Structures are given as structure tokens and as C-alpha cells.
Amino acid sequence: MTYRFKTPLTWADVTPKPAFLNRRQLMAGAAALMATPALARLTYTPSGYSTDEAPNTFEEITGYNNFYEFGTGKEDPKNNSGAFTTDPWAVQIDGLVERPGSYDLADILGGVALEERIYRLRCVEAWSMVVPWIGFQLSTLLDRVGVQPGAKFVAFETVTRPEEMPGQRRAILDWPYREGLRIDEAMNPLTILATGLYGEEMPKQNGAPIRLVVPWKYGFKSIKSIVRISLTEGEPPATWKQMQGSEYGFYANVNPEVDHPRWSQASERRVGAGLFAGRVPTQMFNGYGDEVAGLYAGMDLAKNY
Amino acid sequence: MRGWTLQRTTEATAPAPDLATRFNGALRRVPVWAVYGLGVLPAVWLFWQAATNTLGIDPVREIEHRLGELGLQFIVGGLVVTPLRRIAGLNLLRFRRAIGLIAFFYVLAHLAAWLVLDMGMLWGQVAADIWKRPYITMGMAGFLMLLPLALTSNNWSIRKLGGARWRLLHKLVYPAALAGAVHYLWLVKAWPVEPFLYLGGIIALLAIRVWFARGR
């Protein structure tokens, strides 16, 4: 190979990676600060549950997702969430709990230590990302409010605010968005309530100010902008299951062997990997089988999809 | 625009030089290659955006969807020619072959984008999807129906087949258009508006033909 021009620069002149990464982070931080002055850096510790895969960029995570409350397009959440207000925010915790009540967000966050959890996210539409969430284990909150022995499920509900969420002005889904977990799934250490990503407060379009993240399930289980958590005895309603039960089940575990009726779940496209990156095989339980496979021992996962 | 409206109102009172006739006269001076030229512009634009990385967060999906939608749009464009002639007297027949071939070009490019960019040439999964996924089966069926139409869109084929048989063959565009619209509707989650618009438009354009065929 011949080089057509000479340069006095050598490899020693190349900006070291930590330096440019840092610079990029500063720029991203500055841009975010200018765009939304409310965003603040969070204090958190790293976690052993994080993957060492490279996370998607802040732009990818915040510019491409599903949040039908703001519209069905992938860019709609970013474009239409400007009017959404997340402060003040309270979460109603009720049902089979010892200490029910309306918990202010600051109160909830006062009792927890935030961690960074870098998780794979697999959408039921067969695309995926890697997201550096900031959050805390759901189990710590449930322990704090006291789960009664009869409680077998946890139900979640998203805020209903059509005046701030244009998608809710149409009956695309049966609002409010609802999701649920079995109690052992909710208590699993992988299950977190996330309040931020990339070290900053949760952007509005990603489910601010507090959302669920269940990394071994399809993304639609990870309900956003939560205003209600109820402990129940029976299986709670889940929006997509109610809408189309033949396609979306209550469990919604990532499973390459159980296809969506209309498309294969055997492989996925990693968003941001490039035009010719192709697909990667989808992993059972999204690669979290060591932590969660035991929850489903003896269950027919083709039936309980 | 204002001039046009003004002209039209004056003509409504004095219908002597028919607007459609004058429009057809002007169209006669438009060469067919100009339609091909306009038809590839969206492809050039898409290619430029892909090359400059301005297609958004997921360029693969954007390329695939835009090509498919362009295919549908040109199919609808081709289906509009006959009703426009019979209802409004506008004669775009000279351009129909170009419109149809451009439609086929976009459908072919859409298929190629799916195979190479989206599926990453995982041929096993491609074959299984064509067989098992109704919306992909439907899309493939639409493509296979368009294939002989594209191959016979030339004067030699018309002579070889004879006008009557050629016209019969090219009625395949009706089921192909329906297959394309159903293919789109079948793949979406929930019920966005666009796929319904395409399906509704195509059904309306076919219904007009049935209406005319029955002698009104």
C-alpha cells in the first residue's frame, strides 16, 4: 500500500481514546444541559450485573424507541415529549402491601442507592440495543413497603395525560398502559426501576421519571413513567396481551425458539451496528438465563409465551 | 396557482378551449425519459442520505421502508392513469410503461434491501420467513406477479404476445397492488393510518374499473 501524501503527524499525535471519549461525553453533557436544563448528573456505583458489551450512543437510545403515548413512530417519543412534565411525581403503591400510600419520587429515591446497569434490550420487533441504565432493584422498594404473603403478582400503570402525551389522544392502545410481573420475577435482582441513563436523569422519551427494566423480557414489559404499583393475588392485565393475546403473552420472555406469529424471533438487528452488519442470533432469556431460567423450571415456554 | 384557478373559473363559464385538451397537448411535448429521470430522483436522494449517514438512527429500516413505500406509490401512480383518462380526459398513457417499470425497480430494490441489509443474507431464515410469515409471503407473491410484467414491458413482447394476451397478462398488476398493500398492513403493530390509506386507495382505483366495465 502506498500513501499519496506525507504528513509530519505520527501515531503519537493521535488523541488518546480516553481523552476523546471524555471530550465527547463533555460535549454530550453540555448539549444535554443546554437542551434540558433540568437534567442533572446522578451519583451511582457500577454493578456486576452489567454486560461488557459496548452501549449504544445516547443519541440512539434517546432518538429511537417505542413509547406509543407519544406516537407510534420510533422518532415520535423524542419529537413529541417536550410538553411532558415529570416534576412533581408520585407513585401510588397499593394492594396487598403493609404500607400503602402515595409515595413521592424523592421519598422513593431517598431510600435507595443507585447503580449503573448496562443491559441488553431486545424489542419484540427483533431489534436490540445495549443501554446503560441508572436505577435500583425493584425488590428494595417492595421490601420497604412490605409485601403481604398473599401477593403473587405486581401490577404497574403508566401515567394518563393526553394533554401532554399526544399519542394518548387516539385509542391506539387501551390507555393507561399496564404491565405486570410475577412476584418472583419482580424480586429477581436483575429487575430494576430505572431513573436515569448514561449517568443522567431519565430523558422524558425513555420513560421519565421512573420506569421498569426487565432485561430478559421483550421491551414492552418494561413499562415507562410509572404512577401506580399494585400487589395483587391474580395475574394483572397487560396492555399488549389484552390487545392481541395471540401475539403478546404475559411472560414475554425473550426466546429465539418461540416466534411471534408474524415474524421470527431467532435473530435480531443491533441498532447502530451499521448498514451491512446483518443480524446476530437472539439468546434465550436475552442472555440472562443463568439468573432467571430457574424461575420457569418445568413451564412450557411455548404455551406461556 | 392563482392563475390556474382563475383560468379554470373563466373556462367554466366559457368552455371553448377545453383544459384537458390543452393539458394533453402540453404533455405530448414531454419526453418519456423525463419520467424515468424524475422517477429515479427519490432513489438518488436515498442513496445520498445513506452515503452521508443522514437517514436517522436506524438507516436499514429507513431504506427498506422508503423503497417499499415508493414501490407502492408508483404502483398507485400506474393505476391512476386509466381512471384519469376516462374521468378527466387526461391522457398519460405514454408514460404508463415508465411508471410501471419504476415501480418494479423500487419493489426490487425493497426486496434486495430486505435480503441484504435487514436479513443479512441469512438464507435459511429468509426461506423460512417467506414460507411461514403471511406478510412476507404476500409481499413475495406481489413481487412474483410484477416480475413478468416488467419483463414484458417492451414493444417486442407486445408484438410477440399479441395485444389481447398482453393486456390480459398485465391485469396481474391488480392482484399485485392488493398484495403490496396487504403486505404493508399485515406487518404493522396496532393500527397506524398509512397502510389503510394505500389499501383504501388501491381498492377505490380497482372499483372504478369495475364500475366502468359494467358500463356504469
UniProtKB/TrEMBL annotation, chain A:
Residues making up the signal peptide according to the UniProt record: 1-40
GO biological process: protein repair
Domain Oxidoreductase molybdopterin-binding, chain residue ranges per copy: 85-240
Coiled coil: none
Gene3D superfamilies referenced in this protein's UniProt entry, alphabetically: Oxidoreductase, molybdopterin-binding domain (3.90.420.10)
Single GO MF descriptor: metal ion binding
EC number(s) stated in the UniProt entry for this protein: 1.8.5.-
Oligomer status and interactors: Heterodimer of a catalytic subunit (MsrP) and a heme-binding subunit (MsrQ).
Stated family: Belongs to the MsrP family.
Name this polypeptide is given: Protein-methionine-sulfoxide reductase catalytic subunit MsrP
Taxonomic source organism: Frigidibacter albus
TrEMBL record, chain B:
Taxonomy, superkingdom: Bacteria
Location of this chain's protein in the cell: Cell membrane; Membrane
GO biological process, one term: protein repair
Membrane topology: Multi-pass membrane protein
Cellular component aspect of the GO annotation: plasma membrane
InterPro entries from the UniProt entry: Fe3_Rdtase_TM_dom (IPR013130), MsrQ-like (IPR022837)
Predominant cellular place of this UniProt entry's protein: membrane
Cofactor note: Binds 1 FMN per subunit.
This protein's UniProt keywords: Cell membrane, Electron transport, Flavoprotein, FMN, Heme, Iron, Membrane, Metal-binding, Transmembrane, Transmembrane helix, Transport
A Pfam family it matches: Ferric_reduct
Ferric oxidoreductase domain residues: 79-180
Cofactor dependence: FMN; heme b
Transmembrane segment boundaries: 30-50, 70-88, 100-123, 135-151, 172-189, 195-212
GO MF term set: electron transfer activity; FMN binding; heme binding; metal ion binding; oxidoreductase activity, acting on diphenols and related substances as donors
HAMAP family: MsrQ
Family annotation (PANTHER family): PROTEIN-METHIONINE-SULFOXIDE REDUCTASE HEME-BINDING SUBUNIT MSRQ (PTHR36964:SF1)
Family note: Belongs to the MsrQ family.
Quaternary assembly: Heterodimer of a catalytic subunit (MsrP) and a heme-binding subunit (MsrQ).
Known role: Part of the MsrPQ system that repairs oxidized periplasmic proteins containing methionine sulfoxide residues (Met-O), using respiratory chain electrons. Thus protects these proteins from oxidative-stress damage caused by reactive species of oxygen and chlorine generated by the host defense mechanisms. MsrPQ is essential for the maintenance of envelope integrity under bleach stress, rescuing a wide series of structurally unrelated periplasmic proteins from methionine oxidation.
Classification via NCBIfam families: PRK05419.1-5 (NF003833)
Name of this chain's protein: Protein-methionine-sulfoxide reductase heme-binding subunit MsrQ
Source organism per UniProt: Frigidibacter albus
Gene name per UniProt: msrQ
